[in-house]
Amino acid sequence: MINYTDIGINTLLPHECTFLESFMYDEDYMSRPVAFGDEANVYIFERLAIKYRRYAMNLTNEIKAQQLMASVSDNFLPVYAYGENFIVMPWVAGTILEELNPSSDWLKQLASELAPAFVQAGVEPKDLHQGNVIIDYSGKAYVIDLSRYFIYSGTDSKYIPPLHEMEEHVYNSLEA
Ligand SMILES: Nc1ncnc2c1ncn2[C@@H]1O[C@H](COP(=O)(O)OP(=O)(O)OP(=O)(O)O)[C@@H](O)[C@H]1O
Ligand SMILES: [Mg+2]
């Protein structure tokens, strides 16, 4: 069963939807992920990335955090669709930040670009590090892997850190 988000339903093309309905039954395709994470295989289909969990895991938090962040900042990727164990988003052609050996000044700049979005969305980044940032060929940064992010809600909201603290937190995460 596939669920299409508002963005996906307005964005995905018919042949992409057809592909998403059936890719997991294609053994040959499933045996050829383009990337491996600790718990997920990542597949590519034309302009789409499909993050597929190898183990059963509740994806609700990851989907919610990613949609929230994408709604306030274009440094995050919209979720187009999801199934029980996968999430579909745009594929970013680029390089993992870690491989680029960024300077501290560059990281500071990125932290100041990202921090306001976390404050605005009321989301605390967890597991944010250089391995979870992709830089595309125009130099734009995309943050991936939001499964462990903490979403402030209700009475929690008063604990959302102020911008300068968030900026420091983001910088420390990226620099570590
Ligand atoms: N949208 C994307 N575009 C391009 N490459 C991606 C995309 N999403 C993931 N990747 C590639 O797949 C790898 C693993 O993805 P990700 O970091 O989301 O999984 P993970 O570390 O296994 O996640 P988790 O920590 O939630 O188990 C990334 O390092 C990256 O190389
Ligand atoms: Mg990762």
Structure summarized in a few sentences:
By secondary structure, the chain is α+β, with helices and mostly antiparallel strands.
Description:
With 176 residues, the protein is of the alpha+beta class. It has 2 domains: 3-90, Phosphorylase Kinase, domain 1; 94-175, Transferase(Phosphotransferase), domain 1 (Orthogonal Bundle). The chain has 6 helices and 11 strands. The chain has helices spanning 6-11, 14-22, 27-30, 60-72, 104-121, 163-175; strands at residues 3-4, 35-36, 40-45, 48-53, 81-83, 86-90, 94-96, 123-124, 133-136, 141-143, 150-151. Strand 3 and strand 4 (48-53) form a beta hairpin. The protein binds adenosine-5'-triphosphate (ATP) and magnesium ion (MG). The site of magnesium ion has 4 residues, from loops.
> Any idea of the CATH class of the largest domain?
Alpha Beta
Largest sheet: 6 strands, antiparallel
Determine the CATH topology of the largest domain.
Phosphorylase Kinase, domain 1
The SS-based structural class is alpha+beta
Return the CATH architecture of the largest domain: 2-Layer Sandwich
| Count of helical stretches | 6
The N- to C-terminal Cα distance equals 39 Å
Q: Order of SSEs, N→C?
A: EHHHEEEHEEEHEEEEH
Gyration radius over CA: 16 Å
- Average pLDDT number: 96
Shape by Cα distribution: globular
What is the count of β-strands? 11
Instruction: Tell me the strand order in the biggest sheet.
Output: 1-5-6-4-3-2
Beta fraction of the residues?
Answer: 15-25%
Give the number of domains.
Answer: 2
Oligomeric grouping of the chains: single chain
Helix content: 25-40%
List unreliable stretches of 5+ residues: none
